[in-house]
Amino acid sequence: MPLAVEERLGGAADGFRLMWRELLPVGRLGSGGYARHAWTAADAECRDWFRRQAEARGLRYEVDRNGNQWAWWGDPAAGGAVLTGSHLDSVPGGGAFDGPLGVVAGFAALDVLRDRPDVLPDRGVAPGARPLAVVNFVEEEGARFGAACVGSRLTTGALGPEAARRLRDADGLTLADAMARAGRDPGLLGPDPERLARVGAFVELHIEQGRRLALTPSPVGVASGIWPHGRWRFDFHGEANHAGTTGLEERRDPMLSYANTVLAARKKARLAGALATFGRVEVEPGGTNAIASRVSGWLDSRAAEEGTLAEVVTEIERSARERGARDGVRVEVARESYTPVVEFDAALRDRLVATLRAASGVAPPVLPTGAGHDAGVLAAAVPTAMLFVRNPTGVSHSPHEHAEEDDCLAGVAALADVLAGLLADGPGGDAGPGGDGGPGGDGGPVGGVAGVPR
């Protein structure tokens, strides 16, 4: 990494490395992947790590009504807060970077702003002028209870508290019971408009889940928006029977209908330029020598446009029902979650681009993503933007997910640039590139922090 960047980060570079080493073993499996699922022992360890980071910095630590964790630098009541962070939970067998990178980078960027006054010449940025918070949103991946972004959706009202409390894991335990066992009161779940009203902007840093950025010379990019995406449950009801005595023509085998639907999903998505994945399946009764009575599969589908997504899912459902009719299998389809297309706040997005361009002399790539994020949920309530850190292989949701340390530190530097400019605007500052916080104004980028030669 260029020495100038390491010098500008100061102790925050070593702080980032230390935080990363501390968090790395939590919830790690023998495969090298992770099982950090909401309201489990591994999740509790992650949450304790977050609390200790906040307390070690003398920050005001809070857990909101939905279980999200907050670490405040400055007075939350001051309003216009700048928010950063991500999540600490994982998909089953997931990688180390998806989510945690944004939380660790958030604390490291805060350290740059707090401990290096030379990074903020003539800014007057101080706690209280415009507060800064690092946040850990709970159950972003939906790995345990099947619904993604639970913490942020509850906070914005996109997910109702009663529906959230009824969510169940694979063992039948409800979200309400799991929270209670972890010492949280599920009766408090619900929208938090007063808290959101205190947030002026949210910037989430995340490893890119794809290879668009890796095909450029830039370690850091800016997100333009998020593809619409959703999850659908397909239930195929057949008839249980003996695998060794039931003739092929006598069977009502739901596995055949399911298998055909998986192939149809791939074909329909390919023809439409979309994405469709059956990544989870449950079979009853699950005997090797038994024909299944029921097969349930969960479809994840995404596309650049909502109309395309709707058409692809409709075609997949049609294929499932047609094949089910041939096999004597009853098919039920239910949408479990849906997120429309998200366009991040244009003024804030342009602000990020201008800040990074001024710091490095090169405009960062602006690129869309098909992955969902808490930032996509909060975008409906507050000005929101995202920074991406380069992923050399594009692999994600896998133990092979990776980002180089130099790129991660470049991400910390870029985040510090952005946060510094937003904080310097003051609670009523203009987040747009042409306002007082724009390039060349009092709220412009921190010169040199993200100065990575291209």
UniProtKB/TrEMBL annotation:
Binding site for Zn(2+) 2: D98, E141, H397
Swiss-Prot/TrEMBL keywords: Hydrolase, Metal-binding, Zinc
Binding site for allantoate: R231, N289, R302
Its EC number(s): 3.5.1.87
Keyword Isomerase: no
Cofactor(s) needed: Zn(2+)
GO MF annotations in UniProt: hydrolase activity, acting on carbon-nitrogen (but not peptide) bonds, in linear amidines; metal ion binding; N-carbamoyl-L-amino-acid hydrolase activity
Gene3D superfamilies the record matches: 3.30.70.360, Zn peptidases (3.40.630.10)
Superkingdom, natural source: Bacteria
Cofactor: how bound: Binds 2 Zn(2+) ions per subunit.
Binding of Zn(2+) 1, residues: H87, D98, H206
Region (Disordered) location: 426-454
InterPro entries cross-referenced by the UniProt entry: Amidase_Cbmase, Bact_exopeptidase_dim_dom, Peptidase_M20
Entry similarity comment: Belongs to the peptidase M20 family.
Protein name in the entry: N-carbamoyl-L-amino-acid hydrolase
UniProt organism field: Allostreptomyces psammosilenae
